[in-house]
Amino acid sequence: GQSLEQPSEVTAVEGAIVQINCTYQTSGFYGLSWYQQHDGGAPTFLSYNALDGLEETGRFSSFLSRSDSYGYLLLQELQMKDSASYFCALRGAAAGNKLTFGGGTRVLVKP
Amino acid sequence: NAGVTQTPKFQVLKTGQSMTLQCAQDMNHEYMSWYRQDPGMGLRLIHYSVGAGITDQGEVPNGYNVSRSTTEDFPLRLLSAAPSQTSVYFCASSPDRNIQYFGAGTRLSVL
Fold it and tell me: Which of A75, A78, A81, B98 lies 20 to 30 Å from B70 when distance is taken between CA atoms?
């Protein structure tokens, strides 16, 4: 099977930079993706890494290192609206290519 | 463009009752899936489909049935509701399994 671990909560102030780490165990996978979920809302797609390295999308960047079984989501210039839960997810290479989610990291942005 | 539409938004059932959660997408995606999310946790895959007529089990399939007669629709059936099935249910569709588009969710309580 697959498993992903993330910190449960991170607190930062407006304008700061936050890095959310995701470590995983898998026998093979296609890529690592990240989703944002506000309280009471649905998850929305943020970023996807198929290859090692950094992917940048505006204030958000995501990184993957297959050799270290590790990835992270970087949130820059934090805004109050970034207060949400962030999930990493792995698309497995085994039959069905199922998507497995981490437990989520709750980010609290303070003024 | 409606995206992924889930009905109902809220539902209360008594133990032993059955019901169907509806999910429809208008993006012509082949891949659709159902997840449940318990408070403070990540999403767990219940069932998924890679196209009309093809379904398979996810991580937590017990107590649920699915069918996929058309590309657009992917209903989830609770056979005999139990309190352990109290959760928020999300349907998702994907063009390539890398990016999932989620519906707004169905909040289910089983008494």
Answer: B98
